[in-house]
Amino acid sequence: MMPDHPTIVLVHGAFADSSGFTAIIKRLVSDGYPVVAAPNPLRGLSSDAAQVRARLQDISGPIVLVGHSYGGAVISAAATGNPNIRALVYLAAFVPEEGESAQALVEKFPGSTIGDSLKPVPLADGQVDLYVDPRVFHPHFAGDIPADEAEVYAITQRPATGAALGEPATGAQAWHEIPCHHLISGADRIIPPMAQEFMARRTGGQIQVVEGASHMVFVSRPGATVALIEKAAQQ
């Protein structure tokens, strides 16, 4: 392993877990990168960011921090103030400004099916867990992966609370200070490509559009995903 390889830290989003990163983890490790899949509780933006921030503080040396979907909002907060973060990589991700929530950003542009996809499960504390209805998980969330694989991801998905998706970002967002790289999924039916491009362009970061890719672009296009992460790591 080359001594100057940064650690790649992967943060999953809502309705997923770290198992979706399997293919890209294998490629990154094969290329000599240390990799950490950080837990994302999906309970609330500020508390989720605090947990990821704590995990980052336990890693020595440079870090490239990668977030998918809601995980993008989490890394934008978690990276703030950490001098080891070399780059932020957003995979079909939310990149909020202070005061913006994932829910507000997804509603800013037309084209999302998320409102027709979610099944709420009330919790004892008055909160609501949200799941993507397995009946529409494949066409809405993962349209460019085989149906049998999408079925497994639908079964193993982890819910996010409604509060997490509606919680506005607070404080300084790390993308103002740290170089950014964006992989935009061109056929995304969860976060519309127009919304992804809007968020990406205001960071001033590098943008790559993967035409025909679903919201699970890191699963369907692992080669493009790894290439972008390694480009960020080498700059």
From TrEMBL:
Domain AB hydrolase-1: 8-227
SUPFAM superfamilies referenced in this protein's UniProt entry, alphabetically: alpha/beta-Hydrolases
Coiled-coil parts of chain: none
GO MF annotation list: catalytic activity
Pfam families found in the cross-reference section: Abhydrolase_6 (PF12697)
Top-level taxonomic group: Bacteria
InterPro entries on file: AB_hydrolase_1 (IPR000073), AB_hydrolase_fold (IPR029058), Sec-Metab_Biosynth_Hydrolase (IPR052897)
Protein name: Pimeloyl-ACP methyl ester carboxylesterase
The species this protein was found in: Paractinoplanes brasiliensis
